[in-house]
Structure formats: C-alpha cells, structure tokens
Amino acid sequence: xxxxxxxxxxxxxxxxxxxxxxxxxxxxxxxKKVVLSITSVALILHFSTLIETIFASYGQNMSILNVASxxxxxxxxxxxxxxxxxxxxxxLPIAFGFSCLSLIAAEFIPGTFIxxxxxxxxxVIHIILALFAYAxxxxxxxxxxxxxxxxxxLKQKTCQALNPNLPPLMKVERQLFNIILIxxxxxxxxxxxxxLFVVDFFSSxxxxxxxxxxxxxxxxxxxxxxxxxxxxxxxxVSWFAIIGAFILTLAYFGSRFVRExxxx
Length: 264
Prior knowledge:
The chain folds into two domains: 1-119; 120-264, no CATH class. It has eight helices and three strands; from the N terminus they run ααββααβαααα. It has helices at 2-26, 32-54, 64-82, 92-108, 121-156, 169-197, 207-230, 235-262; strands at residues 55-56, 59-61, 114-115.
C-alpha cells in the first residue's frame, strides 16, 4: 500500500511541475488554483508516508533517507504555502523534484536508524530546530539560485527576465536575506541546544558535524555582515548562500550517507 501511495505522490508532484514549466519557459499563464490543489494532495500523501515510515512500534526510524524525505516535505510545504502571496514558480519544480527523488530513494533503499523520542524531550527540541534550520537555509540556497538566474537574464537583456510568473530581482534579494536571518537564527538555537540535549554531541563520531555546522553558521553570518555593512550583492551573495548550504548539508548528512548508504 505504501508503494502505491508513493507512486501516486510522485505522479502528483510531477503533474504540478509539468503545469508550471510552460509558464516559466513560454511565459504563459499558470493556473495557480489547479497547481496548488494538486500540490496539496501530494503533500498530504507525502506526510502520510512519513508517518508510516518514521513512526514504528519499536521507535522512530530517523534514517538518512527518511530525514531527507522529511526535509523535502517541509521545503515543498513551506514554498507551497508561501505561493499564496509570493510568486515562487521558479523554486517549486526544484523542490518537487527533490521530494520525488527522496520518496523513491527512501522506498527502494531502506535504512534504519532507530531513536526513541519519548525518552528525551530535549532531543526532540534539538531535532526540530535542526530540521527547520536546515530546511530554511536550503530554501535560502534556492532563492540564491533564483537570484543568480534572474541577474544573469537581466544582464543578457532577455525577455525571460520580465516573465510575469517570476518575482522582481530586488524583491527576491530582500526575501533572501529575510530567510537567511530566520534560518541562521534557527541554526544558532540548534548549536546551543546540541550540547544541552545531546549527551554525546562532542563525541569523536560527531565532532565533524558540530564543526561543519559552526563553519556554516560563520559563513551565513559573514554573508549577513557583508550585505548589511559592506553592501554585498549579486554573485557574491549567491555563492556565499550556496556554499553555506553545502557545508551544512555535509554536516547533517555527510558521514551518515557514507555509513548508512555506501558502507551497507
């Protein structure tokens, strides 16, 4: 049954994507109500698969692919809700593609990393902060890609940059820094809560995770300082946001990917 739900969810995500792409490529009108209706069903089904795969009778299975699927759900859900007020057509196909890949991978490459949230409420707080910090800063990275793409199109003086389905460049930049501020605040709380709630936070097997997370935190802080104090804009901003997100991805998933996927 779970396999059927996953296939249907992937189909709905792809259907929404194919309804969006013509508007981005040919500047045709995108039916917002239809796209969001299809997406809503896909998100409900996606959430149901997460409940089934993560919550088991013997504990919570927070395998790397289950976590990736959960993160992709959060990103897709947040961007879809934001679509009620902001034009994010450029970002949705990327988010939906990530959701499709993570769903399929979690189904066909099963993994196990059992934890017990009921034994440590503090750990739950730390995990929630970490998930939302990562998801928010990944959304910032997607915004950075959109910013770089719009900037390139404007410099090329192509009509694509004036696509009514895309937001203005300056608005994207403002939103990017608001998102980074929120994400970096959540990351700060994550770094603070780690030593408080995770017993072996600085153990030899997790030191690299703490170190890389701190480096990513520094990168985003330097970016914020550079923008507000030095007036950084354009490519430099995009590169800093993408590099910060990449380092954070290595921190969150790097060693676990090797341990749970490559070495199994």
